[in-house]
């Protein structure tokens, strides 16, 4: 298996990478649509709609398509997003679960002294609670949500910010994600990137986005990141 050398920092996406969160997201989106008197949405639909943040997820749910309807009423969109946030928060994220191997692998990197960050397009308000709920909040030195900065993935802004803050060369940073937004952000930041096959990528194979390495299981990360001993 190919591997990386000289990695000093790892940034992780959240939904579809560390956490299987679709059941909770789909339930909140479904409740929001029904509260507005619109047809409900399914887990299967929402699986192909997430990855660009909550505003676009809700735009897709209202449009019932990956392409958000350009004629969508902004006020309806705003109301639907507020409903979604309320239902998602009220649900307590009880159906979300870490993928197999995530906790042990993060612990391995943490014990080896590798600083790590979350770079997700999920609204920042929901992220700390999720990390705490699943017992992984202590592993991350930075937590960046989709609204932490003016620009979100696929823009490389957050990755550039991390490199500047931690004084990293691009060759010392690795991004790990399951979506083309993660791959595009990493390529724009010229850092290394791993694509995971099991997450949510609009129904497309992650290999189409040409990450440096494609992995089927999270625990394989410990094999491909060679730590300086």
Automatic annotation (TrEMBL):
Annotated keywords: Carbohydrate metabolism, Hydrolase, Magnesium, Metal-binding
CDD domains in alphabetical order: HAD_PGPase
One of the protein's GO biological processes: DNA repair
Key word Transcription regulation present: no
GO CC terms: cytosol
Domain of life: Bacteria
EC number: 3.1.3.18
Record-listed Mg(2+) binding positions: 13, 15, 178
Enzyme class: hydrolase
Cofactor(s) needed: Mg(2+)
Pathway in which this enzyme or protein is active: Organic acid metabolism; glycolate biosynthesis; glycolate from 2-phosphoglycolate: step 1/1
Pfam family, one: HAD_2
Keyword Oxidoreductase among UniProt keywords: no
Annotated active site: 13
Catalytic activity: 2-phosphoglycolate + H2O = glycolate + phosphate
Transmembrane residue ranges: none
Cleavable signal peptide: none
Gene Ontology MF term list: metal ion binding; phosphoglycolate phosphatase activity
Recorded family membership: Belongs to the HAD-like hydrolase superfamily. CbbY/CbbZ/Gph/YieH family.
Cited function: Specifically catalyzes the dephosphorylation of 2-phosphoglycolate. Is involved in the dissimilation of the intracellular 2-phosphoglycolate formed during the DNA repair of 3'-phosphoglycolate ends, a major class of DNA lesions induced by oxidative stress.
Protein name: Phosphoglycolate phosphatase
Species, as recorded: Photobacterium proteolyticum
